[in-house]
Amino acid sequence: MRRLRRNDRSGAGRGSGLLVRLATAASAAGSRIEDVWWDRRLGEAIKPLLTNVGMHTIETSLERLGQTNPRAYDLLADAVECAVESATVTHEGAQFDCLMFLAPVLAWSRGRIPSGKLREADLAVLRTQLGAHVFAPEARIGLADRIYTPDQLPGSYAQEVQLARALFGVALKNGNYAQRADQVPEAVDFVSDARYVIGAVAVPAGTEMFIYQGEEATLESSATAWAEQGHGALVPMLVGCQFELMPPGAFYSSLRRVDQTARVFYLRAGVEFLGTMLTREPDALSASFGPFHDGQMVEYRIGLTLGRSEEVFHGVVWPVLSDADLEEAPQQIRTLLTELGVNRIVEHEHRFPLEFSEEYGDPLFPNAQGELVRAELPEDAEPAPVHLH
């Protein structure tokens, strides 16, 4: 499944042929020792391209391989992501392995889900909990001084490189990175959404980085401890929200895990939100869903309403993240709705066009009759104004 999520497509650039050739050769490797060798060559070729200009070459290469060689595409994308989110840095005469990480939070609220600046005291608590339950004892931790919405994350490899290098610098000093307010887009509010704490971890080169790489903890115990202790640390920052913590991890893999996990969370939150706003139990609600496309399948949209109403009171988007989703998503959606207590379910098998409201720009959702309508709560159930996820 292609990972490309960039908007800058300004032509080929020198070196595109080299990256394509190296990734193509790497895709034919037949042993681990070859994999390591080609990985090193790719890393050497990518490193000088981690600039605003060089990124054009990287993205052009990914575009070409995405159309011709999926295996080589994955290898090049992995190598680029590694080069962006990690580095070995020399500090005070010693070498440190550095990694930019995300600590994702899935949240929903009847009002607004907070984002924005974090207080020094909150950052100190987060650093303590991350140090105790996520990272190795020798780790140094740097944190960005705000909670980010998905729309506020860096939008290109070039921006991610800049943020990663800034975070590496503060991590080596166990400090905080203050991003200028004019560099962060305005938050867009949704009923349910992800929030991200962004940071970097630095450890002496060649030593373990995460606590579960040692003998005192496992991945499962680390995730459980963080979910419990990290939750308490984030409560002051997410007042009025119900939220779940996901395990912190490397920047790109964390983003992909959120994409996968959030679908279930958003649908569960949507049912709970609508039931709360209408003061009804889930078995009083109805759901209609179907596939939407813009030439290819991109998502399912689920319209939630009360009883047999032709209106849609809340909508949830279920992105298609892999080819397997084309077959599995309908049953997953139906099973989850049933588990949540929604018994009246209509599945539309024909594909809908990827249409949005002309006036507001938000997605249109199917009702039971197969009509595409905007999701709007009844006037007597209107919460603080937010978008529907």
**Overall body shape:** globular
Could you tell me the mean pLDDT? Answer: 89
**What is the number of E strands?**
15
Indicate the structural class: alpha+beta
Unreliable segments of 5+ consecutive residues: 4-14, 384-388
Tell me what portion of residues adopts beta-strand conformation.
Answer: 15-25%
| Tally of distinct domains | 3
Helix content percent band: 25-40%
**Radius of gyration from CA coordinates:** 23 Å
Biggest beta sheet summary: 8 strands, mixed
Order of helices and strands: HHHHEEEHEHEEHEEHEEEHEEEE
Distance between the termini: 23 Å
Q: If helices are DSSP runs of H or I spanning 4 or more residues, what is the number of helices? A: 9
List the helices and strands and how they pair.
Blueprint: H1 16-27, H2 32-46, H3 54-68, H4 70-85, E1 86-91, E2 94-108, E3 116-117, H5 120-133, E4 140-148, H6 157-171, E5 176-177, E6 192-204, H7 219-234, E7 242-245, E8 249-250, H8 251-278, E9 285-293, E10 297-306, E11 314-319, H9 325-339, E12 344-347, E13 352-353, E14 364-366, E15 372-374
Helix pairs in contact: 1-2, 1-3, 1-4, 2-4, 3-4, 5-7
Would you mind describing this structure in some detail?
The chain is α+β, with helices and mostly antiparallel strands. It has three domains: 16-84; 92-247, no CATH class; 263-381, no CATH class. 38% of the residues lie in helices and 23% in strands. The chain contains nine helices and 15 strands. It has helices spanning 16-27, 32-46, 54-68, 70-85, 120-133, 157-171, 219-234, 251-278, 325-339, and strands spanning 86-91, 94-108, 116-117, 140-148, 176-177, 192-204, 242-245, 249-250, 285-293, 297-306, 314-319, 344-347, 352-353, 364-366, 372-374. The strands form three sheets. Strands 1, 2, 3, 4, 5, 6, 7 and 8 form an eight-stranded mixed sheet that branches. Strands 9, 10, 11, 12 and 13 form a five-stranded mixed sheet that branches. A hairpin with a 2-residue loop joins strand 1 (86-91) and strand 2 (94-108). Helix 3 runs antiparallel to helix 4 (70-85) and helix 5 (120-133) packs antiparallel against helix 7. The chain is globular and about 70 Å long. It starts with 15 loop residues before the first helix and ends in a 15-residue tail after the last strand.
